[in-house]
């Protein structure tokens, strides 16, 4: 009928009768059409002059894509309704253009004369037509929907910014006032939906949130966009203004032609700026055949001149000066060149052929060039390296050569002189952006004999020994220089020896790279993964033979417990390792013992004879370190005696007939079915008494109790736990999380899949600090059984022993002794965790999610769940209706299959088990459904982007140093069209959803409703993944989920899925239990991998349950074997120690703002490193940015800094020198902050331990030169 948007709004009832003949459908259509007409009856603002302002400008961003062009037809909608993001212009004095002010003032109503402090929200709304619409809608409907909330926020923020004409900013206090005013005017709304202020308590941080704040950010974004005028780039960037279309013709010629030479050189020079910015790598040799020509070295000269103007002749101009400096350097440092030392020094001191001083002498003929190349390629391949550019001289010997070649890949450039060959070789590294080869690395630096780290100077090594290895405790100082085996008993002698030591320059590819890992505090076994090196305790002050025996015995136990802790190492292999070690010892110790005996018989000195006899006894003990542990029975018995091993208990739960072959016949015999149960009372006693664990827990609990804040970051601060503590206020009670899940130990696609499916129950202490709670070492196995047994015997029998143990821990508790002081500790079950299927199966709810009552939190029917936007508090399950439903005993009417057996735990009630799993609900559920529908809509319906383009962007996007390992997989057409789901793991989906706005946001218009649904999802994800929450976050989340569900139903015309329904309970669960990220399944799923690795390393499945349980307890024994007093204090780990150039240190000293303590990068005893790991969070200098300030007082935006260098002070404190960004605004369309470099402040020095619990991020430069 050719009905477009304008004609749709003009349809009359008679016209609709012809289009929609059925009365019922016509009634619904007319109702929706009426609403649409109301929404479009808004009086348009005049934005013609506003849009004429320049919209091209330079800016930068922390995570986005380029901005969409302003659509003139929707200009007033963009300004009024689409402003909402974190904004702060590049300089704080930016103003709205005069034309913009005029147009905004024109739109004011006659009520515009007022005192802005006393003006009410209602008067603000009456000034604008949109505001009047909001009031009219509320008076008729009694509440506000998403569209009305957006209009409300737009009117208020626009009016505030017009009043604050001088600063264009709204203070935090003003936001709070406005939010409260909205709550007073609209009784159905709450202030937390509109603004939640930034909060920080210790390391717990929660940012500004709310619809008013989002709208403010969006408006500031657009003001920033239209007010910025084109200006010269402050920082030189050769990528600005480069467009492939401008060079397309020249580039195509270069890709397919090589002649004539003059045209080749001309086009090469014309395209230099573009190529060096976009295609600066070794692949240019294959892309541009001209580089393979004999004149290709001229092209390298052109590119080098483009990169470094007026530097092309530096080598030739300064060669004589460099030669003299090199002579002095060699003589001063006594440098040796090995076998060619004499020849090379003669050439350097008295060169016979001009310019051969710095080149490597080779005697080859022209026929050997290909052989040389193939040999180099093969050698490099063997060492995992690549062949970098090198020089070859052709001649009869080392003193007479005729030709010089520079070789780049398979291309040989013939040059006139050795210096020119060296010149081209050097320039090729820069023009092709290559790394220097290992032969060119200086390895004459002093090396630490403890951690093998290298240093640029001997003084740096001394500082390193003093800071990292406590020089006072070092008994022997060893020299690691080539062919030097001396050692010294004191530091001064060692230092003097190094100063007098000749320096050797060696070029040997077989030398392995030095260890680049160092720790400020020696590593502890509790934090070492099972494949790490064992910590052997060596006491240097051993005097007697008995002490030696004791030490060997203790180290033997440590070694055995380490071997047993390997997940992928079968227990039978430990016996083989011990046998091999004993055989190895006996081979040479017997010879050594005989020689010592012979020397003793010939020795006339009794003192020497006695010393040799003691050495002989030591050798005898060392030869049999496992004398008392030669069998596995004895080894496990030893671990028992040492108090390290808590054996799993096998519990018989019943009998079933089992077939067995007897005398050639199959007979049926009763077989006991057993499960493994771990005595938790013993596990917790040993765990809390070990090292400093109990002290850490008490300190953390005390810190949380003394911090009076609405910020919740632990389960201990939740309402649910506080209610349990009120009953027992005088006891030390620790909360427990219990997790259940099934997993497959066999090949899930094999013929035996499912036959050995196991159910595992883990427990963890929910009162641990965040850095310890995420460690797999602190998640304990509680019970293990076959899933078939649970189905056969039921929950009550399977979990009876575990429930009994939990009641014992709650009523009787355990007694632990810390520093000779006894403490009585009790435990209480806080929450039972798991995915939806696992929880429903063990809690007694229906496992069929399409059942009539599929929810464990409420009694809403399936039909209600399909369209429910908010939680119905009247339908929540409580103790009364739960007991009534159990009596009814009909799951089709109640959703309950059986009485929950976990109700037998004294302080636990299933109706108060407020836990959800956002990993399965969101990342492996809602996001897979929703993003598939969203992308399907954007690709096949709206046609904003093609699937091929999407996959190309997924492949080439810069995921940064944090998320590169979780980069998403490619999406297939079958996923979107037929399956309507996206196949990704939870980690991949988290990465994909986080960066989708940056990947394709520039192609999607802001008016797309499908994109609006993604933005709502992203905001929901941000809150649910937060490590700390406030009460207001739950209220805001409730609004976001309601808006999401409403838009989802409207867009796709499908009902909500069960996982969508779980989302409506999220705000309620946050209020009761705290942040949802505290009890998701991600870390527990990782715990499964240890059991799976063990199962895959063995072939027997006879008693797989006990085998895996014992292996887990042996891993715990290894953790408990550490004798250190600070095992659970997480050390700061650092990467390779590096030396910065002097000019860079001087620049840091003069151009750095120090936030707290000022440092001198040259004179202070600080050490620069490549990376640092603080409590599991990695910081490095590879395009990593951190948040310096979460909320600036002026514009309420975070401040970001790009990490340029990291250093450690002499008191082991990590600091970062960062290049500050100016946060311009938060772009809601891309879900990222737009930033630009701060050219007023050069650098800032911040403490990495004080920046809070917000993970580092990275900045992305988008295709339109925006930085996000």
UniProtKB/TrEMBL annotation:
Keyword match Zinc: yes
Annotated SMART domains: ZnF_C2H2
Superkingdom of this protein's organism: Eukaryota
MF annotations from Gene Ontology: zinc ion binding
InterPro entries, alphabetized: Znf_C2H2_type (IPR013087)
UniProt KW keywords: Metal-binding, Zinc, Zinc-finger
PANTHER family the record matches: C2H2-TYPE DOMAIN-CONTAINING PROTEIN, IP13529P
Protein name: C2H2-type domain-containing protein
Species this protein is from: Aphis craccivora (Cowpea aphid)
Lineage: Eukaryota, Metazoa, Ecdysozoa, Arthropoda, Hexapoda
């Amino acid at each position: 009928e050719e009905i477009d948007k304008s004609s749709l709004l003009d349809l009359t009832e008679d016209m609709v009768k012809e289009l929609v003949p059925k009365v019922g459908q016509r009634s619904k259509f007319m109702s929706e059409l009426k609403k649409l007409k109301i929404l479009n009856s808004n009086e348009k603002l005049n934005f013609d002059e506003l849009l004429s302002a320049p919209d091209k400008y330079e800016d930068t961003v922390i995570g986005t894509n380029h901005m969409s062009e302003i659509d003139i037809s929707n200009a007033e909608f963009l300004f009024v309704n689409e402003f909402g993001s974190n904004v702060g212009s590049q300089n704080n004095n930016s103003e709205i253009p005069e034309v913009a002010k005029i147009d905004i003032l024109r739109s004011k109503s006659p009520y515009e004369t007022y005192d802005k402090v006393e003006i009410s929200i209602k008067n603000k709304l009456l000034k604008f037509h949109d505001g009047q619409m909001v009031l009219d809608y509320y008076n008729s409907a009694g509440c506000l929907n998403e569209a009305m909330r957006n209009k409300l926020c737009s009117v208020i923020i626009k009016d505030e910014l017009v009043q604050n004409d001088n600063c264009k900013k709204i203070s935090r206090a003003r936001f709070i006032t406005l939010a409260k005013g909205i709550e007073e005017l609209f009784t159905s709304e709450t202030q937390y939906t509109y603004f939640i202020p930034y909060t920080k308590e210790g390391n717990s941080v929660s940012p500004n949130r709310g619809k008013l704040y989002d709208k403010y950010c969006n408006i500031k974004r657009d003001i920033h966009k239209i007010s910025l005028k084109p200006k010269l780039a402050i920082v030189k960037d050769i990528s600005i203004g480069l467009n492939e279309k401008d060079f397309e013709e020249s580039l195509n010629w270069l890709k397919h032609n090589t002649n004539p030479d003059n045209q080749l050189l001309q086009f090469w020079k014309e395209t230099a700026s573009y190529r060096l910015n976009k295609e600066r790598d070794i692949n240019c040799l294959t892309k541009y055949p001209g580089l393979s020509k004999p004149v290709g070295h001229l092209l390298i000269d052109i590119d080098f001149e483009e990169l470094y103007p007026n530097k092309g002749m530096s080598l030739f101009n300064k060669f004589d000066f460099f030669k003299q400096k090199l002579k002095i350097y060699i003589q001063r440092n006594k440098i040796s060149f090995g076998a060619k030392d004499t020849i090379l020094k003669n050439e350097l001191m008295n060169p016979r052929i001009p310019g051969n001083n710095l080149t490597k002498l080779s005697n080859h003929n022209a026929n050997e060039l290909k052989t040389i190349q193939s040999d180099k390629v093969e050698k490099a391949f063997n060492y995992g390296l690549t062949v970098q550019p090198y020089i070859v001289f052709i001649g009869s010997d080392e003193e007479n050569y005729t030709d010089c070649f520079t070789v780049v890949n398979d291309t040989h450039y013939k040059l006139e002189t050795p210096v020119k060959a060296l010149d081209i070789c050097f320039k090729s590294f820069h023009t092709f952006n290559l790394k220097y080869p290992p032969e060119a690395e200086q390895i004459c630096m002093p090396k630490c004999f403890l951690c093998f780290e290298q240093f640029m100077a001997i003084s740096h090594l001394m500082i390193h020994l003093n800071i990292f290895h406590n020089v006072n405790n070092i008994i022997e100082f060893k020299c690691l220089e080539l062919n030097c085996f001396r050692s010294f008993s004191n530091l001064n002698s060692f230092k003097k020896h190094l100063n007098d030591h000749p320096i050797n320059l060696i070029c040997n590819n077989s030398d392995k790279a030095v260890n680049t890992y160092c720790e400020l505090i020696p590593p502890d076994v509790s934090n070492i993964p099972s494949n790490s090196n064992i910590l052997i305790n060596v006491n240097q002050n051993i005097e007697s033979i008995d002490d030696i025996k004791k030490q060997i015995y203790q180290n033997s136990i440590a070694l055995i417990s380490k071997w047993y802790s390997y997940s992928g190492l079968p227990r039978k292999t430990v016996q083989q390792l011990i046998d091999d070690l004993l055989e190895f010892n006996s081979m040479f110790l017997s010879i050594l013992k005989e020689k010592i005996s012979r020397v003793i018989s010939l020795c006339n000195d009794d003192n020497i004879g006695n010393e040799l006899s003691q050495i002989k006894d030591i050798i005898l003990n060392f030869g049999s370190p496992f004398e008392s542990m030669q069998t596995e029975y004895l080894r496990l018995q030893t671990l028992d005696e040492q108090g390290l091993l808590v054996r799993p208990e096998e519990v018989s739960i019943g009998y079933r007939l089992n077939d067995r072959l007897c005398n050639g016949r199959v007979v049926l015999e009763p077989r006991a079915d057993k499960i493994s149960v771990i005595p938790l009372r013993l596990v917790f006693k040993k765990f809390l008494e070990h090292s400093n664990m109990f002290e850490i827990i008490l300190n953390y609990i005390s810190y949380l109790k003394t911090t009076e804040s609405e910020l919740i970051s632990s389960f201990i601060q939740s309402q649910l736990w506080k209610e349990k503590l009120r009953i027992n206020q005088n006891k030390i009670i620790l909360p427990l999380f219990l997790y259940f899940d099934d997993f497959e130990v066999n090949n899930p696609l094999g013929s035996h899949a499912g036959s050995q499916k196991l159910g595992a129950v883990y427990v963890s202490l929910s009162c641990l600090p965040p850095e310890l709670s995420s460690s797999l070492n602190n998640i304990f196995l509680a019970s293990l059984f076959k899933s078939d047994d649970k189905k056969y015997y039921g929950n009550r029998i399977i979990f009876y022993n575990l429930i009994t143990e939990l009641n014992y821990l709650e009523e009787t508790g355990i007694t632990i002794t810390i520093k000779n002081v006894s403490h009585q500790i009790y435990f209480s079950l806080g929450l039972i965790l798991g995915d939806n299927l696992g929880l429903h199966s063990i809690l007694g709810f229906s496992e069929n999610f399409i059942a009539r009552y599929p929810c464990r939190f409420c009694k809403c029917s399936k039909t209600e769940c399909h369209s429910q936007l908010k939680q119905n508090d009247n339908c929540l399950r409580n103790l009364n209706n739960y007991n009534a439903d159990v009596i009814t005993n009909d799951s089709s009417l109640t959703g309950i299959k059986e009485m929950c057996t976990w109700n037998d735990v004294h302080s636990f009630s299933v109706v108060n088990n407020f836990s959800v799993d956002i990993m399965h609900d969101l990342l492996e559920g809602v996001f897979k459904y929703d993003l598939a529908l969203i992308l399907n809509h954007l690709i096949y319906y709206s046609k904003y982007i093609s699937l091929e383009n999407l996959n190309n962007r997924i492949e080439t996007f810069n995921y940064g140093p944090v998320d590169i390992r979780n980069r998403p997989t490619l999406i297939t057409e079958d996923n979107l069209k037929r399956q309507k789901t996206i196949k990704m793991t939870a980690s991949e989906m988290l990465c994909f959803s986080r960066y989708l706005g940056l990947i394709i946001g520039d192609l999607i218009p802001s008016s797309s409703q499908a994109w609006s649904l993604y933005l709502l999802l992203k905001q929901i994800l941000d809150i649910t993944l937060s490590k700390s929450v406030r009460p207001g976050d739950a209220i805001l989340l409730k609004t976001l989920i309601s808006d999401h569900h409403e838009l989802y139903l409207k867009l796709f015309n499908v009902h909500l899925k069960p996982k969508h329904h779980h989302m409506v309970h999220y705000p309620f669960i946050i209020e009761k239990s705290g942040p949802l990220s505290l009890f998701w399944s991600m870390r527990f799923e990782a715990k499964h991998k240890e059991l799976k690795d063990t199962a895959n390393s063995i072939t027997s499945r006879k008693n797989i349950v006990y085998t895996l349980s014992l292996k887990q307890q042996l891993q715990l024994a290894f953790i408990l074997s550490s004798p250190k007093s600070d095992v659970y204090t997480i050390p700061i780990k650092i990467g390779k120690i590096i030396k910065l150039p002097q000019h860079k240190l001087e620049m840091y000293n003069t151009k750095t703002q120090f936030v707290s303590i000022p440092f001198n990068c040259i004179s202070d005893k600080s050490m620069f490193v490549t990376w640092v790991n603080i409590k599991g969070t990695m910081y490095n200098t590879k395009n990593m940015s951190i948040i310096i300030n979460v909320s600036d007082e002026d514009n309420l935006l975070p401040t970001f800094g790009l990490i340029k260098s990291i250093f450690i002070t002499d008191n082991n404190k990590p600091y970062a020198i960062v290049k500050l960004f100016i946060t311009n605004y938060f772009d809601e369309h891309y879900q990222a902050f737009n930033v630009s470099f701060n050219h007023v402040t050069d650098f800032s020095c911040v403490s990495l331990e004080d920046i809070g619990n917000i993970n580092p991020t990275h900045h992305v430069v988008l295709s339109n030169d925006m930085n996000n």
